[in-house]
Design a protein that fits this description.
Elements (H helix, E strand, L loop, with lengths): L1 H18 L3 H12 L4 H7 L9 H37 L18 H15 L3 E2 L5 E3 H4 L19 E3 L5 E3 L4 H10 L4 E10 L11 E11 L4 H16 L5 E8 L2 E10 L16 E10 L1 H7 L7 E8 H9 L12 H4 L3
The structure holds phenylalanine.
Length: 343
């Protein structure tokens, strides 16, 4: 009786296993047979109700049947999953030759790049970077730099006043006030480079902007000469514009340096023969410089008898325009992505 039931269940199971078409059907079949409430499990439990003499034989048969079914299940499981995997591999394909999607990566503004280039060149010469305030006191922007209230040089650098009275607060017209602040705080020797944003009351046109950028340098040490200044600037020009560029100094006036000079570089377009960019004379003006005026040292408490120094200053936009052939300073600030992404 028990044996018959077992035989029936076994052949029914073997047939169902063979007929199962997927690993999913096979799994539910396994649960229905061998699970806690499965048919075979129930049958095994019923052994306990048989006569004692029949139990050993029944148990042995039942175990054999269960092992046979389990073996059949796992054989079919392997068969089906191999087939399913093969089917999946042939139906899902991945074309690794398709071009990828490139994420858009930004980069620094051209002016940031040029500032970094300039600063890196001077860092290589041993200079330290110093930064100051964009809103300055009249003292730092003008007076300490040897431009007292009625000095005519002030009119060349008219600016925007935030507060006009005894302690005038204005937008700095150059980064030279940083140099005064550093000299007030530190003693020589000093080798500093001051990059930053500056302001002047200029109407915007192709070569003027009421806001622009400068990098100025200051050296204070013992035994510094005008030849050191020239050598330093030549080294800068060669690294910035190329080793074959020539440098020319022309006498000029700055209130805070004496003697002062303007520095020209041989035209980077025609090499000095004369072209439209250099106005036909072969030279391009790139910066102003000079030996620090003794009055400036007196204003910060340095002894002009023991210390000498030089200073120079350049407009970042001008350097960038010359180097990259840009003809309108306003392009830097219009934020036209078609312009910006070229650099
Ligand atoms: N501060 C000057 C300017 O803005 C530039 C300069 C700096 C000239 C240092 C000489 C020495 O015009």
């Amino acid at each position: 009786m028990f044996k018959d039931k077992l035989e029936k269940l076994k052949s029914k199971s073997i047939a169902a296993i063979a007929a199962a078409g997927s690993t999913q059907t096979l799994e539910s079949l396994r649960v229905n047979l061998l699970g806690r409430k499965g048919e075979l499990t129930q049958l095994l439990k019923s052994i306990g109700t048989l006569a004692t003499a029949e139990r050993p034989e029944a148990g042995k048969l039942a175990n054999e049947t269960r092992q046979a079914i389990e073996a059949d299940l796992s054989r079919r499981q392997a068969e089906l999953s191999t087939a399913e995997r093969a089917e999946q591999l042939s139906s899902e394909s991945l074309d690794i030759t398709l071009p990828g999607r490139k994420p858009q990566v930004g980069h620094g503004h051209l002016l940031t790049q040029v500032i970094n280039d300039i600063v890196r060149i001077f860092a290589g010469l041993g200079y330290k970077i110093a930064e100051g305030l964009e809103a300055e006191l009249d003292w730092y922007n003008f007076e300490a730099l040897n431009m007292p209230p009625d000095h005519p040089a002030r009119s060349l650098q008219d600016t925007f006043y935030l507060k006009k009275n005894k302690d005038d607060v204005l937008l700095r017209t150059h980064t030279s006030p940083v140099q005064i602040r550093i000299m007030e705080e530190q003693s020589p020797p000093l080798y500093i480079i001051c990059p930053g944003r500056v302001y002047r009351r200029d109407v915007a046109d192709p070569s003027h902007s009421p806001m622009f950028h400068q990098v100025e340098g200051l050296v204070v040490d013992k035994g510094i000469t005008f030849a050191d200044l020239r050598g330093t600037l030549e080294s800068f020009v060669h690294q910035m514009f190329g080793a074959d560029r020539r440098v020319r100094l022309r006498p000029h006036f700055f209130a805070f340096t004496e003697p002062s000079a303007e520095v020209d570089v041989s035209c980077i377009v025609c090499g000095g023969n004369g072209c439209r960019v250099c106005g036909g004379n072969g030279w391009l003006e790139i910066l102003g410089c000079g030996m620090v005026d003794p009055n400036v040292f007196n204003n910060v408490g340095y002894d002009p008898e023991t210390h000498v120094g030089f200073a120079f200053g350049m407009g970042v936009e001008r350097i960038a325009m010359l180097k990259y052939g840009i003809n309108d300073i306003r392009s830097f600030f219009e934020n036209d992505i078609r312009f910006l992404e070229q650099f």
